[in-house]
Amino acid sequence: MTDFVGRNRLWARLNTAVAHHADHLATPIAVVDLDAFDANAADLARRAAGKPVRVASKSLRVPALIERALAHPGFAGVLAYTLREALVLHERGVSDDIVVAYPTVDRGALVDLVQSPAAAAAVTLMVDDVAHLDVVDSVRSSKAVQVRIALDVDAGLRLGNQHVGPKRSPLYDASAVAELARTVVARDGFRLVGVMTYEGQVAGVPDDVPTQRARSLVVRRLKQASVAQLDVRRRAIVEALRPVADLEFFNAGGSGSVESTVADPSVTEVAAGSGLLVPGLFDHYQSFAPRPAAFFGLRVSRKPSPTLATVHGGGLVASGAAGDDRLPLPWAPPGLHLTGLEGAGEVQTPLTGHPAAMLTIGDLVWFRHAKSGELFEHVNHVHLVSGEEIVETVPSYRGLGHAH
User: Fold this and answer.
1) Bridge-partner residues for 54, per DSSP?
2) Domain 35-276: which topology?
3) 290-319: pLDDT as tens digits
4) Is residue 395 helix, strand or coil?
5) Is the peptide bond before 279 cis (omega within 30 degrees of 0)?
């Protein structure tokens, strides 16, 4: 829905959906288009070609949306981003198969984990260093409850001395992975069950940006090189771990790399989350057509001139390296733009473009966040829209008192 006609229809549809609740909805009004969400879920499952899709909860942060994704055929398990979040999801009955994607040093949460056999059986911790095991042991007096462990292996592309990709794990060579695996297996109170390799330089980088043709070509070539290198390394890791432990899963990839990830025979499951909501940073991929599903609405509060419209708030800027691509996108009505001087402001955001002239005080403008999930750290409730109606209003993590 990137065409002007479609975005104008979206503007009318979302305005109609919230019209009956307008007096009660504080801005930013966060909505999820369930029709787009469900279509995106089906598309992710299709792209995964039979391998399970593990829901990356960082990209949703709304329990009802995580549950909705898990209800779709082809989805299984959650990839959480904090241990506290994983414990909350388990306690709420969202999933009994939760892998924490990042090593944790949260001793309070670890105490809760090791004191609950049910939680320990459902949650898998990620490690890439013996020190992570030491932290777990530091909070328990008994090792009667086994802690499930997965190894996070660096999936960056190495070109000579250059490393392209997220700076995550110190584990790279199969020999180093096997050495840590043997340590885990030999250590009382731990059970090695999985491996993860997240190729962010493939999954999280747009490769078909219309205004960056030359750069996009370079990105595609780097992705091809990375996929080829990873195929060899993953195979070596699987062979090195075969005599050490009987693994339950080998997790990899993300929304932008589903096809290449599942094509690797070493991988047993793919992670995905952003592909369900499709934020601004996921607009320009060759591998899939975007269907934006998450929006936030702000009201016009000023008309500084006949050709400008200023909305109240708007400074919902995404994390990561600072740049224009981290700013929210004015989406509906189409044709609006942020100004170069003020950008997206904490208390006001001026908008230019031809639709600004027709907007009046009180009108809604709908934006897209640059990154998936982060939008919902700014609101307590999310309104789920189907067609032209809000069919349900659900709490975000923040609304539940569990902001992460």
Assistant:
1) 271
2) TIM Barrel (3.20.20)
3) 899 999 999 999 999 999 999 999 999 999
4) strand
5) no
